[in-house]
Design brief:
α1 packs parallel to α3. By secondary structure, this protein is an alpha+beta fold. The protein has a single domain, classed as BB2672 (60s Ribosomal Protein L30, Chain: A, 2-Layer Sandwich), CATH 3.30.1330.110. Strands 1, 2, 3, 4, 5, 6 and 7 form a 7-stranded mixed sheet that branches.
């Protein structure tokens, strides 16, 4: 099953100061969001493999778009996350199928790695619903400075028979982090945690 994309939106945030202090270099977060037809809207379907395949296809499309917006090579991305919102005729399991780990394989290919789990969120909502994309360091989940999130929304999505799917990437952790924990420079890279 090939994905039907009604709309593709890419957004970039750049934080240059925080609490009156300069952030140098600025932190950048980019998200690519696809609005797609939900082939299973309005009905129960036991086999969600077609949605898993769509997620894998979207993993490549969205990650390439988000990294391009970020303006750095994929290998320099520090954090990532994914999220999906189904319209009212969909079910949360449709979002879960789209965000299946198979979506992560093309994400990691574009980034040249990523040992940590890709944080995700799923919800149901109507047009304009906020999609909160959780973010975490791509190679070590315990890097606290990279626990973050990015909110995105599209005013006319998702419609009742659609799914809104997003992938976000960052150039750094939060601006001016100072709550301790494992530093990005101290990652061992052994288990996706530390």
């Amino acid at each position: 099953m090939t994905v039907e994309i009604r709309k593709l939106v890419t957004t970039l945030e750049e934080t240059r100061s925080e609490m009156g202090r300069p952030v140098d270099p600025p932190t950048r977060r980019a998200a690519a969001i696809a609005v797609i037809a939900n082939p299973f809207a309005g009905r129960y379907v036991a086999d969600l493999d077609p949605l898993i395949a769509i997620g894998e296809e979207l993993g490549l499309i969205l990650t390439e778009a988000a990294v391009a917006a970020l303006g750095i090579p994929g290998s320099q991305v520090q954090s990532y996350g994914k999220a999906a919102a189904v319209g009212e005729n969909g079910e949360l399991e449709h979002a879960a199928a789209i965000l299946h780990p198979k979506l992560g394989a093309p994400v990691r290919r574009v980034l040249g790695g990523g040992a940590a789990l890709i944080p995700s969120s799923k919800k149901r909502g109507g047009p304009g619903v906020a999609l909160d994309i959780p973010l975490g360091h791509k190679d070590a989940a315990f890097v606290r400075s990279h626990f973050d999130g990015m909110e995105v929304r599209i005013v006319d999505a998702p419609r009742a028979d659609e799914i809104m799917v997003a992938v976000a990437v960052t150039s750094a952790g939060r601006p001016l982090p100072r709550v301790g924990g494992l530093e990005a420079a101290d990652i061992k890279g052994e288990d996706g945690l530390r």
